[in-house]
Amino acid sequence: MSEKEKDSGARFIDLNVESKLRDKKIEKDTGAHYVDLHVGAKLREKRREKGVSQDELAKAVDLTFQQVQKYEKGLNRISCSKLHDFARYLKTDIRYFFQGLGDVFYPFAENTSYSLGEVDFDFNKEDINAEIVELVKAFKSIKDPKIRYNILNLVKSLAWH
Fold it and tell me: Does domain 12-98 have CATH number 1.10.260.40?
């Protein structure tokens, strides 16, 4: 691991150890639940995307910047009301923070409409083929939210080619 990576505060988990931790749903170094880590990472991502500092975000939702840091690292769990405040200030749908977890997408209804932020799409049962089902099952079996997030971004980028 480079010095830059050490200084960034990034945590790297040995993939062999990760499978053991997955069942406990905790992160090796912090004891944080994987959902808290995911939501914190999404908060950081959206804050940076909007060009907002931790201090500015903290003041907007009546926190200290240290608390925002803890939320972003997954060290402290974000309450529903605080997550709502973050979503409003960052002008994003609250569901954004949970995208990539994989447990909320059930595409097998007869006719279903979904809205994921700015992307709306409709599909019906005939649109679901074996390849799509296989892709969804494989994707759902990936337990690490960071890996799912990276795969999702890869697929999105390939879809535009």
Answer: yes
CB within 8 Å of 145: residues ≥ 6 apart: 34, 35, 37, 38, 41, 100, 101
Q: Which residue has the tokens 């830059």?
A: 4
Contact in structure between 34 and 27 (CB atoms under 8 Å): yes
Tell me the pTM.
0.50
In the predicted model, what is the mean pLDDT of the chain? 74
pLDDT band at 148 (very low <50, low <70, confident <90, very high): confident
Q: Where do the structural domains in the chain lie, given as residue ranges? A: 12-98, 111-159
For residue 74, what are its two tokens? 């997954």
Count Cα neighbours of 54 within 13 Å in the Cβ-side half-sphere. Answer: 12
- The tokens describing 12, both together, are 């790297």
Assigned token pair, 101: 């977890």
Residue 117's region, left for phi above 0, alpha for psi from -120 to 50, else beta, is left
Here the tokens at position 19 are 């499978």
Residue matched to tokens 């994003």? 92
